[in-house]
Amino acid sequence: MMGQVGSKMRRIGPADGYTAGGLAHWCPACNSMHQFALDGKNSSGAQWTWDGNVEAPTFSPSMNIKTNPPGHPHYQPQAMSSVCHYFLKCGVIEYLGDCTHVPKGQRVPLPELPEYLRDGSVYDRSIRLREEC
Ligand SMILES: [Zn+2]
Predict the structure, then answer these.
(1) Please, are residues 29 and 103 in contact by the beta-carbon 8 Å criterion?
(2) CA of 1 to the centre of ligand 1 (A)
(3) For the segment 34-89, what is each residue's pLDDT rounded down to a tens digit?
(4) Is 29 inside any structural domain?
(5) pLDDT tens-digit readout, 96-106
(6) Alpha-carbon distance 80 to 92, whole Å?
(7) Based on the structure, what is the number of domains in the chain?
(8) Distance 34 CA to ligand 1 centre (A)
(9) What pTM does this model have?
């Protein structure tokens, strides 16, 4: 079940520390992987649909990752808060206006996986993907 899907996504799930299986892609704004949970709800209760397109995927609805949001029970005032909110449609990331990082409001082609996250790389078996920005 796990492993690379096309050149831009990896299938990851419970074996990688995620609540549900799904597809993860590289987010050039956060410099980390974000996972769309497909087989069930993720730890935040969210789940997406995928159109089955490997190289130019569309997921629905949007991804909205809030790190350390004010008002959350575990909010830490001294820590950074961030929002990564985007649609992934036809292989293009559409960052929305409420993102806290630079490409907000811009469309960015879904990048290929970084070398170290591809199948067969040195770190393929040992890397632990981050779930949040
Ligand atoms: Zn991001």
Answers:
(1) yes
(2) 24
(3) 999 999 999 999 999 999 999 999 999 999 999 999 898 999 999 989 999 999 99
(4) yes
(5) 999 998 899 99
(6) 27
(7) 1
(8) 7
(9) 0.85
Sequence letter at residue 19:
T
Q: What type of residue sits at position 133? A: C
63 found inside a domain = yes
Confirm whether 131 is domain-assigned: no
- Whole-number Å distance, alpha carbon 65 to ligand 1 midpoint, is 7
Q: Are 3 and 24 in contact (CB under 8 A)?
A: no
Q: How far is the CA of 120 from the centre of ligand 1 (A)?
A: 25
Confidence band (pLDDT; 50, 70, 90) for 16? confident
* Six-digit token string for 92: 């293009």
- Ligand 1 centroid–CA 84 distance in Å is 5
Q: How far is the CA of 71 from the centre of ligand 1 (A)?
A: 21
For 102, the domain range is: 3-112
Interval between CA 66 and ligand 1 midpoint (Å): 10
Residue 122 lies in a domain: no
